Amino acid sequence: MRDAQVTAGGARIRWVEIAGHDAAAPPRLYLHGLGASSGPYFTASATHPLLAGGRALLMDLLGFGISDRPTDFGYTLEDHADAVAEALETAGVREAEVVAHSMGGAVAIVLAARHPHLVARLVLVDANLDPVVPSPVPPAGSSGIAAYTEEEFLAHGRDEVRERVDAHWWSTMRLAGPEALHRSAVNLARGTTPTMRDLLLELPVPVTYLRPENAGPLPGEDALTAGGVRVVAVPDCGHNIMLDNPGAFAEETARGFS
């Protein structure tokens, strides 16, 4: 396990690092989604024959997984991106190939926009691109978490969310700081200005976007493709593409980095 201090208060991001056998290969960064952790979601992918070889950092965002969970951190997408950037600088990583899932994809877009020297290529895995309106009838996802005030979430919302999510997601969500989980969901729903989608279209790096085939086209998919984003519909999977169809995920991710 590796770690780096990323806030003035001493909070530390931690990651599992796979050294790899090819010193000439670019470093690769894996970022998880809301309530997740990069180790459980990405270890199989990082060690897949099509993706193994170079240095791989399976990093947990501040507030999640094995990283610290400070309560005095804002957990905006910009905050997350800057903390990841600080960790990468400490790790001596530049021009990384970034694989990022769901909320992690939104963080990766902001990371590439704010710290362009750190990101050489992006593979976004069913990532958030647009703001969302919190649902008045909370579903299991980020918009449902964001529907609570922080006080409501700390008092009873976290327990209610636990009853709505599946056991796999809860196994990592339970590791998140409750303030981190709620604030991250609220800020993900709020998005960025310009939006993540607009930031993405301005990035000067190659971008692949993987989406579940059965979910149908993305909103604005034609515009993304026209803007140079390689959008790939992956069959036989849901939101967790890397877990549901690991072979196709590895193949399309490797193609995005070729």
From TrEMBL:
Listed Pfam families: Abhydrolase_1 (PF00561)
InterPro entries reported for this sequence: AB_hydrolase_1, AB_hydrolase_fold, AB_hydrolase_sf
Source organism per UniProt: Streptomyces poriferorum
Record flagged with keyword Protein transport: no
Keyword Metal-binding attributed: no
Source taxon at top rank: Bacteria
Protein name from the UniProt record: Alpha/beta fold hydrolase
SUPFAM superfamilies: alpha/beta-Hydrolases (SSF53474)
Record GO terms (molecular function): hydrolase activity
Keyword line: Hydrolase
Domain AB hydrolase-1 residue range list: 29-134
